[in-house]
């Protein structure tokens, strides 16, 4: 954040897209600039971008961002959220890791897409050491309740 803040002060018309400084007026997030290849990044927790929409997440994301936990948001079937293609991309990306690390997928909503994907790909999930975590807890805040998961590192 500090680096991003500094770059916006020293270069007010520039921003970062995939770690590359760009001029927002002349390029979009899906620019033709190739993302430099490098070693994968290992993190404890990754939030799938854009409510698990297929617009920004593909198998390459899961090949390069290797997380112990992936949080999958999205509860808008009309807009394709969560995207079945993104869930399938997790399987494809994880299959190319070359190591069988445990991965936990945490959906924030119980959706038909997620349930169907879970049932149809359960054997592949087991083969790849992927566990889908269902929430059995509920948090109540200001007259609103929602499912919740506790994660410990």
TrEMBL record:
Q: Where is the composition biased (Polar residues)?
A: 20-31
Q: Name one GO cellular component term.
A: dendrite
InterPro entries per the UniProt record, alphabetical: MAP1, RibonucZ/Hydroxyglut_hydro
Q: Example GO biological process term? A: axonogenesis
Q: Name one GO molecular function term.
A: microtubule binding
Source organism per UniProt: Ceyx cyanopectus
Instruction: Please state the gene responsible for encoding this protein.
Output: Map1a_0
What is the name of the protein in this document?
Answer: MAP1A protein
Where do the segments described as Disordered lie?
1-35
């Amino acid at each position: 954040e500090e680096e991003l803040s500094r770059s916006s002060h020293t270069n007010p018309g520039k921003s970062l897209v995939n770690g590359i400084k760009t001029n927002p007026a002349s390029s979009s997030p899906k620019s033709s600039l190739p993302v430099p290849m490098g070693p994968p990044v290992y993190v404890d927790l990754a939030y799938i971008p854009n409510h698990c929409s297929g617009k920004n997440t593909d198998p390459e994301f899961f090949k390069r961002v290797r997380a112990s936990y992936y949080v999958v948001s999205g509860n808008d079937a009309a807009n394709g959220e969560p995207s079945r293609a993104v869930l399938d991309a997790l399987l494809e990306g994880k299959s190319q890791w070359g190591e069988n690390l445990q991965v936990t997928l945490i959906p924030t909503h119980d959706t038909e897409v997620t349930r169907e994907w879970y049932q149809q790909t359960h054997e592949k999930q087991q083969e790849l050491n992927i566990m889908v975590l269902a929430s059995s807890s509920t948090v109540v805040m200001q007259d609103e309740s929602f499912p919740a998961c506790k994660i410990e590192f």
